[in-house]
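Team,

Forwarding the record for the chain on the shared tracking sheet. I've put the sequence and predicted structure together so nobody has to dig through attachments.
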Amino acid sequence: MKTKNKDNRSARRALALIAALAVFATLAVGAILAYNRLREVWIEQCAITDVNSQVSIESGNRISPDTVREMFGLRNGANLALIDFATKRNDALKKYPAIKSINVSRLLPGGVSITVVERDPFARIGLSGSKKPTGRVCDDEGVVFTCRRGAEMLPLIREPEEPGTKPGEALKDRSRSALTVLLVAREPQFADLNILEIETAKPDFLEITLTNYSKVKFRWTGMDGFTPESDAALREQLTKVSQTIGTNLSGEVKVWNATIQGVVTSSTNQPN
């Protein structure tokens, strides 16, 4: 009799457990169905039906709003909830070196705002011995990109040989040193140093051409390094050059030699 009662209790517990599991399964399925329906409703609200009113683009002169919309696939019929903005942003930065940064802000549920910050051309990039423009420029961080209009008056950094620094890459070695000179030379105390171009192919120094076509053979202690000590030596040497050139009232000097730290000599002959 006791055994029969035990069996009945076990059966009831089993039935209760099965019933509980069935209820749980029903609730789980209901929750999943409800979630999926809510997700569908949400996704429907994120559809682009009027790209001009739902998508706001702020960009510069070289990257048009149409180009930005194309980068992210923003067109009527697209759905903002299904676009992988992070991946598309990274792809755009790789494809367009002229872009410095891209900020994407979702305006829930059906809007998006994108701000593109472009790099400003700081210097042109050319090749030694070639008068043909490369169409490349760099910004003040040394990142190279293409810009064929509006950069004609910028100073020129001549790299030793083809292909030179490619778009999307950053200047390095002696080209980076030339950029450093240009960055310091734009400060007010060096306003009289109007640099036309810097040749980087010389083995021991940079050859600076000023706007009056005189030359400066220029180097400083730690020229190929970028340390606080190197920066201080550069400023000291550039100051010495500026002061010495300021004494050339007749304009007869054609070559200035500033390859020894703290010393600047002059010559009326053209450089070799």
